[in-house]
TrEMBL record:
<feature type="region of interest" description="Disordered">
    <location>
        <begin position="556"/>
        <end position="584"/>
    </location>
</feature>
<dbReference type="Pfam" id="PF06209">
    <property type="entry name" value="COBRA1"/>
</dbReference>
<feature type="compositionally biased region" description="Pro residues">
    <location>
        <begin position="571"/>
        <end position="584"/>
    </location>
</feature>
<protein>
    <submittedName>
        <fullName>NELFB factor</fullName>
    </submittedName>
</protein>
<dbReference type="GO" id="GO:0032021">
    <property type="term" value="C:NELF complex"/>
</dbReference>
<dbReference type="InterPro" id="IPR010405">
    <property type="entry name" value="COBRA1"/>
</dbReference>
<dbReference type="GO" id="GO:0034244">
    <property type="term" value="P:negative regulation of transcription elongation by RNA polymerase II"/>
</dbReference>
Length: 584
């Protein structure tokens, strides 16, 4: 027999059961082969007296013995699998596991035999602690490792971080890729953007579900995954790892896996924040709860701040906190209240600050809340409120009867201090960017043109980050009609986008996404100059080239053909108008 057949009989000899090799030997050394075969069949067949007389009956029907033995074998295996699963649930714990361990001891030598392997794997699956020696044998054999249940793999992984890392790594890469594909999606819409999906829907994603299943109830594996996420976040500064950290915990929460949820000190905080993210707003009641968790961090337990900061650094959390901050500022304008007098606003800033400081905190291992700059509260936020007032004043003024109306133009300048804040203060920059998203979503063209230039230089180039550009391009679809105007396009493209296209590939991609969506609204002359300016260079990546080609194809389809444009027929007679027949 070849290697395939050898595998079929693997381990039978150790149990004293004859296999193909034995038959071969018998036949080689005997004088009467037919008798030898008959004897082998009698010794190794199904030993039931009543069966002996029935077998010739099957022969008459032309049913091969192999088929008969195979069906008996399959039936017995099913019964055995059912029995193993039943043993795992009945009687006292020690007794049931003792039975399974004995069964594993007897059957393990057949683990490489394909027909018996499912039974051995089933026994191991139901054992909370497979003997170390057996685990090592499984781990050393690629095919066995692949075939064993996740319950057994967990036992292998928990003492083999490198092997577990190899299993988790492709999933984490896939997760980041999925997030980036969403941010660069060709579907641009203000209604369906990166933040549209509810947290519960996001947790149903393939990667989160697979990781949840791999972890099961195993705290050690959960800790390992968190360690991987921290390490990758430190190495790459990619905030999507923070999202996964929160999604994973909440996925285990959905399944009520208390073994893990009760030992993760961030569980209740994340649960409460998750509800805020679902509503895209932090209400007063939840604000109190969140504050209680932050104030409750005891001396000696400050390390939990590192984890909380990572939960707050999740873009979905930042989005919720920033939207809530803008809403609070508008409310304060109506109440004639200063930012420093609003405890709810101060809490939002505290959480934004903690989230934005996550990388520094985990990197430095200094676990204390970042100090809030007083000027953010006393100067920057009142300045933002004054912009809200500018809008109200201008809108009221537009509605006044004409004789009372002096020609009050919309303010076009921005205080230098505002630009400086956007460049030097991370929290101010984040809130400022969300304010600009807010006015764009309100179709406030005047305010948009007033602030667009402040985006060219921002803290750590935040205005050129994928999340901001994804949201901005979505909101700009609401200002579609303005794209026909020279002033608007010059400010948006020349003043902002093109200032970074050559040095930042992602900006190049976002501009092309926007034009693919709105090219039909842009004045032809402007479109032509943009097409030239956005032409990919040798260094451009595949994604940019692909988008540029798509745009070129779309523009080609819009152009009239040269024949139509140049040749006019010599005689253009007007078509005679045919009167509509009167109804009878």
């Amino acid at each position: 027999p070849g290697p395939g057949q050898a595998a079929m009989y693997a381990g039978l000899q150790e149990l004293g059961v004859a296999n193909g090799e034995d038959l071969k030997e018998t036949l080689t050394n005997c004088t009467e082969p037919l008798k030898a075969i008959e004897q082998f069949q009698t010794e190794n067949g199904v030993l039931l007296p009543s069966l002996q007389s029935a077998l010739p009956f099957l022969d008459l029907h032309g049913t091969p013995r192999l088929e008969f033995h195979q069906s008996v074998f399959d039936e017995l295996r099913e019964k055995l699998l059912e029995r193993v699963s039943a043993i795992a649930l009945e009687g006292k714990v020690e007794e049931r596991y003792k039975k399974l361990e004995d069964l594993l001891e007897k059957s393990f030598s057949l683990v490489k035999m394909p027909s018996i392997q499912p039974v051995v794997m089933c026994v191991m699956k139901h054992l909370p602690k497979v003997p170390e020696k057996k685990l090592k044998l499984v781990m050393a054999d690629k095919d066995l490792y692949k075939a064993c249940a996740v319950e057994v793999k967990r036992q292998i992984w928990q003492d083999n971080q490198a092997l577990f890392g190899d299993e988790v790594s492709p999933l984490l890469k896939q997760y980041i890729l999925e997030k980036e594909n969403t941010l660069f999606s060709n579907d641009i819409s203000v209604l369906h953007n990166f933040f549209s999906q509810s947290p519960k829907t996001r947790r149903q994603g393939e990667v989160v579900q697979k990781l949840t299943q791999m972890i099961g109830k195993n705290v050690k594996l959960y800790d390992m995954v968190l360690q991987f996420l921290r390490t990758l976040f430190l190495r790459t500064r990619n905030v999507h790892y923070c999202t996964l950290r929160a999604e994973l915990l909440m996925s285990l929460h959905d399944l009520e896996i208390s073994e893990i949820c009760t030992v993760d000190p961030c569980h209740k905080f994340t649960w409460c924040l998750d509800a805020c993210i679902r509503e895209k707003f932090v209400d007063n009641k939840r604000a109190r709860e969140l504050q209680g968790f932050l104030d409750g961090v005891k001396k000696g337990q400050e390390q939990v701040l590192g984890d909380l900061s990572m939960i707050l650094c999740d873009p979905f959390a930042i989005n919720t906190l920033a939207l809530s901050t803008i809403r609070h500022l508008q409310d304060l304008v109506g109440q004639d209240t200063l930012p420093r007098e609003s405890p709810d606003l101060l809490l939002l800033l505290r959480m934004l600050s903690l989230g934005q400081g996550a990388w520094d905190m985990i990197d430095s291992q200094v676990f204390k809340e970042p100090k809030m700059e007083a000027e953010l509260i006393t100067k920057f936020l009142p300045m933002l409120m004054s912009f809200v007032v500018d809008d109200h004043t201008f809108n009221v003024d537009q509605k006044l009867p004409s004789e009372e109306k002096g020609p009050i133009p919309y303010p076009s300048t921005v205080p230098e201090a505002f630009t400086k804040f956007l460049q030097e203060n991370r929290i101010a920059c984040e809130i400022g960017l969300y304010y600009i998203l807010h006015i764009t979503k309100q179709r406030n063209k005047n305010a948009f043109l007033r602030f667009i230039y402040t985006l060219v230089e921002t803290f750590s180039d935040l205005a050129f980050s994928d999340i901001f550009l994804h949201l901005l391009t979505g909101n700009l679809t609401l200002l579609g009609d303005e794209f026909a105007l020279e002033e608007f396009c010059t400010s948006l493209f020349d003043g902002f986008f093109l200032s970074a296209c050559s040095r930042k590939e992602n900006v190049h991609r976002h501009v092309l996404r926007l034009l693919l969506h709105l090219h039909h609204k842009v004045a032809p002359a402007k479109l032509e100059s943009l097409q030239k300016a956005l032409e990919p260079t040798k260094q451009s990546g595949e994604a940019v080239k692909e988008l540029y080609n798509q745009l070129t194809e779309k523009l080609e389809l819009r152009k009239p053909s040269p024949a139509e444009a140049t040749e006019t027929p010599p005689m253009e007679l007007p078509l005679p108008t045919v009167p509509t027949p009167a109804p009878r």
